[in-house]
Amino acid sequence: MTNSINEIEDADCIFVIGSNTTEQHPLIGSRIQKAAREKNAKLIVVDPREIPLTEDAVIHARLKPGTNLAVINAMLNVIIEEGLEDSDFIRERTEGYEELKESVKDFTPEKAEKISGVPAETIREMARMYANAERGSIVYAMGITQHITGSMNVASLANLAMITGNMGKASTGVNPLRGQNNVQGACDMAALPTCLPGYQKLDDASVVEKFEKVWGKFNSKAGLTVTDMTHHADENNIKAMFIMGENPLISDPDLNKVKKVLKGLELLVVQDIFLTETAQLAHVVLPGASFAEKDGTFTNTERRVQRVRKAIDPVGESKADWEILCEIARAMGYNMSYNHPSEIMDEIAFLVPSYGGIDYERIDVVGLQWPCPTKDHPGTVYLHKGKFSRGLGKFTVNNYIDPAEMPDEEYPFILTTGRILHHYHTGTMTRRSWALDYEYPEPYIEINPKDAKKLELSKGSKVKVTSRRGHLVVKPLITDIVSEGVVFMPFHYFEAPANILTGGHLDPKSKIPELKVSAVKIEEVK
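Below the sequence we write its predicted structure tokens.
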């Protein structure tokens, strides 16, 4: 997040797109509701489903899945055509504006309406409402990123913030909500194939030299993304995998292919706190420790580094992740050794400028937000004050393209997937809670009543849902939460894993799969 969670409450306008916030990020969702209900913030929600936040929204733009970019580009068109842009901010703090202006010149709300289904006048109202706000905050999640245009979707939101001057000040910005509690920390610490901790590039010789002084010589060649690994393993170019804290046999697209790939490995090692569906295929399972059984830090979605404290000793033979990794490294001939996680944090502070001022003593009570470069630095509440990290903020051209898989005569429905309030990700933890599983104990698919009537679904029936990759059988939930022609499935359930249906179409830059748009057909199971 460019800004902080608390700041959302003081925004004049909150633009939520691709995020079912109250169900996926309930604490942040409650702040959005508070801003709308108690502080009269104007809430705009762009989502193909009628989510809980739409009850508080001034505008709910119910778009077709995969058409976010069309709506955003049309909003930019309106802002420019009606002179609502922040000319001073554009002139003083950005570059590339003329190219952006030319790229959206013909992308009118009428054109976007034909693509997205959102009425042209609604798009105009959204653009005016956001552009005229003194403090406009953009909030998004995986409904924006899990598309073949995910990178362009994010860049277009940055365009929207910059063109209106909603960047570099309180209660504004572009604020992605991370999908799990330490995703931000994992990215910060180089769980990405092209960089070292702190997003320091592997192709920078001075960066590599700095790390080698502490770590010794290492292979500085860029690695592969998760989706690339699956492809390379399928081509027999990868023989072994080490999977830590992930359950790809539920969460990855095209599960039939994923299962084939994992089964074909010469060695599969899984490190986790439960025997997940993926772990059941492993040759070796390493029992990790839960958050309650270890010391360390999590970096949350607002860049806040926070202490995690051990409440109980690890159960059975389980160990903290860092201890397991150290033992493996030593067994492979590298003397990786620490006495306590605080020593790891000190090493991070030494090597990563944005974490330079963070240590366990400073975050003992309240965490610090990076960048925090020195021990006397208070942390950074919001980014880009005065200037961007690259100097001038760069507008980018993001031309709309359709999703990779569109509905047709054979597969007439658009399937989109996501989470529900009572379950978390692959259900590894929440489905072991009887109270949570009691609320939503089995998988289902949401179908609009008009579609159910066309399909002649009988009461209490089940349906077979088929895509080009596989099929599953599930109970239908007839509801107008979804629009006609669109169906929705939560992906938490191993009994009917939605990702059997989703495809391997990837964003060419981020390599994130298009999980939010798949073409399917539906028929009643007699």
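The radius of gyration is 24 Å.
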